[in-house]
Specification:
Structural class: mainly beta
Distance between the termini: 36 Å
Shape: globular
Helix content: under 10%
Number of strands: 29
Number of helices: 7
Radius of gyration: 22 Å
Largest sheet: 9 strands, antiparallel
Strand order of the largest sheet: 12-13-16-17-18-22-21-20-19
Amino acid sequence: MRTKRSRAAVVAAGVAGAAVLGGLVLGTTAQAEPGTTAALGLTPVLTANAKVPNVPVAHALSAELSEIAVAQGSNRLENGTPEVPYYGYDGNSANLLPAPGDVQSTAHNVEASKTEPDKNTYLRLTGQHGADPSYDYGTHFLFQGHEGGKPGYITRVNLDADAAHRVTLLATTDVAGKALPDFDGSTWDPWAQRLLFTAEAGANGGVWQATPDIASKVEDISTVLGRGGYEGIQNDSAGNLWLVEDVGGTTIPGRFTKLPNSFVYRFVPVDTADLTKGGKLQALQVISAGTGKPITFQPIDADHPDGNAFSQDTKDLHTYGNVFDTHWVTIHDTATDPSGVAFDANAAAKKAGATPFKRPENGQFRPGSDFREFYFDETGDTDARSVANAEYGGWGSVLKLTQTSATANNGKLTLFYKGDQVHTGFDNVAFLDHNHVAFVEDAGDTLHTQRNALDSGYLFDVWHNYADGQQPLRFLAEGRDPSATIDSGLGSISGSGFQNDGDNELTGIHVSDGDPSIRGILGARVPDAFNKNWRVFYTAQHGDNVTWEIVRSQTRR
């Protein structure tokens, strides 16, 4: 049986190689870039880390913060399988690093494929079990769905457990025995008492619900919520589900610009305690400030060789000060379509006249707003060559949707922040308190090379008008570990067929006190990040695939 230990001792013991990875990493104390807003008493990190060939670089955090590794890719699952033996590696090779003299080719991979524990969901639960029936697994857990491998799978990091019991494999198949897809987003639905996972796979994507214990019961509920490239997912105060879709549109030849092609959805269930009973799926529609008509998807055709990538409406959506009326339009209702057949949500949204965005990946309600303010990001084109970068959202953005209530059918949409080359590719989001929201970059290795800068995490003040040119506070400059540096070199060999990414993608930023009740849904209570029961997690994907907890540095209080 596990003996009781301090949280610090448990965390230190829980990760293989913690002596190397668990060290405290302090950021620079240099002055912030001009116009940067201060927040939460954090010292800004001056610059992003440069991408230098063959040179690893450590993460840099605000000097008041430190980070502790809670899991890493080479953690053996306590109940792993030949296909899924580790937290962040598939079982398609015995080598997690290239062996001396081994040569990468299209017919032979020198190392195992790496999965992506992309999104974190933290819960405090009792009565959870693992592979060892005699072991006490504690009460603090971090859940992930994994992208980028076959099969897809769900893991649970047992934060109170020792190394041998640190990570439990919850499922690789659904209740029908079908292999799980690669998962991206996740959340906990306290009404349904289920974890919800999203598969960002376009017409093959959707939503799966899962129980949180070992031998998880996983069900595909896409006949209700549709097939879509869903990523972000969370509840509102009425038990509705808000989903944010990431489906990159067609790239316009020669312009390095993608069509706006992704939608924001709201699902209104018939029974919040049982999502399988159906409901209405709605999509957000924005009304043009110029024409008074809905802004809708425009494909590339003879009359529109650029679709609507460079339309006045697209420009207006990415211009400070503009205010747009919004409506929710119903695109599917199980009451009128009880067929039980999965449908294409993206196609249905286009048909209903909903408004597409430039890869919106995640969103969250502002705590203390009574679920009246919803902030969501657009990743944009993540290419410095995009013709849309200057005025048409190529660098991405953060948009703010305001409604009189979470269930209102009408609202207002405004541009909160317009990205630039330094601040772009926003992916995951988390509020740290009532007024400060973190967005972290997933700019991609192409843009990393173009701008010679790796990803960063930024803290925004929701009261600030960023039209004045001020910039958010950089609290995290992502580094690149030795494994990712090696992978970057292997991936640069043309025609080698190397399968792993060469960066440490910054993802999974998550702030929660782990409350599994309705009071604990994101946005219901104002967080107090780094203090009391509120915990902050993120994942540096690829490379060593480390999931970190950010804490206050004891020496800087």
